[in-house]
Amino acid sequence: MSPTTAAPVRHIGDEERRLRLARAHRLSPAARAAAPLEVARSLVALHGTDPATVYLAVGARLADATGTVAGVEAALYEDRSLVRMHGMRHTVFVFPSELAATVHASTGLAVAAKARAGLLKDMVSGSDGRLTPEWLAEVEASALAALERRGQATVAELTAEEPRLKESFTYGRGRSYEAPHTVSSRLMRVLGVEGRVVRGRPLGSWTSTRFRWAVAPPHPELPVAEAQSELLRRWLAVCGPATEADLKWWTGWKVTDVRRALAAVGAVVVSLDGGGAGYVLADRVAAPAGDAEPWAALLPGLDPTAMGWQERDWYCPPAVRSALFDRSGNIGPTVWWNGRIVGGWGQRDGGEVVWRLLDESGGGAAARAVAAEASRLTAWLGGVRVTPRFRTPLERELSG
Q: What Pfam families does this protein map onto (predicted)?
């Protein structure tokens, strides 16, 4: 019987889900990690759309966060144990390098095929046939050769060696969203999704959004079904129980792919509060041992825990969402107490971390624990001002 039709073997309520989250996501004090790679492996993927999120998400989960920036930079740019690349839902993530082939085969190939087809269609029609697929192939080969020679380069540096990258075409001609697109911006994105280039060291500090590019290190080509099963197995180990809707949303796969992977990993069906069904790995069915440990955390915008599930009521009460999400569904900086989002935080001009509880059910214990975490984060940032890429109502208000 497939996991989508099997009867639930036990019930996992919201309280237990929050206990599992605290430990698997390295958020309770006793579960904190020793190094950035340990955090990344525990979470499977760190959101990388906003560069600062990677560092803040790691720092929140380290027992000693003082060397976070240097440690993450060393992992990304020196020993290459972490890699920044496109992954699920056409989003930029930071993965442990050993997962690059798995992510590429499980999600990147399908997204890359659509991205390249879209680029060719838009480029040819938007240039009235002036820019052809053959022309693009020539420019692409030249740009990759230049990148190979340089090791790392910005788009501006690449266009200095291959000026044809500056060519532009009209996207959405005649429509309300008509706009000029450059070949360089679209091509580098496609090459990134295809796993042929990766983002390298940024220009400026760790909060910079201006990156260099580098040729991607080689990795084996895996069978798609095998890669999907491995990615889902790793994610369920960290985020189970999860619903089918959660899995489809997080991976970006078709529901048939999700169900095939669930069956391949032997996922077990459990019942959830509210009457829904969730899935866990067979070796994660039993309840975690030990009592829950009180904990607070200040997590950054787009944190992988806050963005880990589509169905969020069990950790993000609907009453707090309007203050913490932007209009596109991106979550901002959040305050957590015992596995639930209870508020948000921001920074004043001088770098001080300020916060507000939107749910005060935790009482004085929650307020004291959050204040301690805010002081810890203020000290760790050392005056560096971090402005989230996606601003949310509460973060704007607190930072104003």
A: AlkZ-like (PF06224)
Question: Which stretch of DSSP H or E encloses residue 387?
Answer: none
Mean pLDDT by 10 residues, the chain (400 residues): 71 97 96 96 95 96 93 93 88 93 92 93 94 96 95 93 95 91 94 89 89 88 96 96 96 96 97 95 91 93 96 95 94 97 95 95 94 95 93 95
For residue 205, the one-letter residue type is S
All residues at 6 or more sequence positions from 140 whose CB lies less than 8 Å from its CB, including other chains: 187, 191
Give the residue carrying structure tokens 């740019």. 77
* Residue-by-residue DSSP string for 36-70: HHHHHHHHS-EE-SSHHHHHHHHHTTBSS-TTHHH
CB 331 within 8 A of CB 297: no
Distance CA 238, CA 284 (A): 10
Separation in Å, CA 257 to CA 88, 240, 336: 14, 18, 33
DSSP 133-164: HHHHHHHHHHHHHHHHHHSEE-HHHHHHH-GG
Q: For the chain, give every domain's residue range.
A: 1-80+222-400, 98-215
Distance CA 144, CA 122 (A): 22
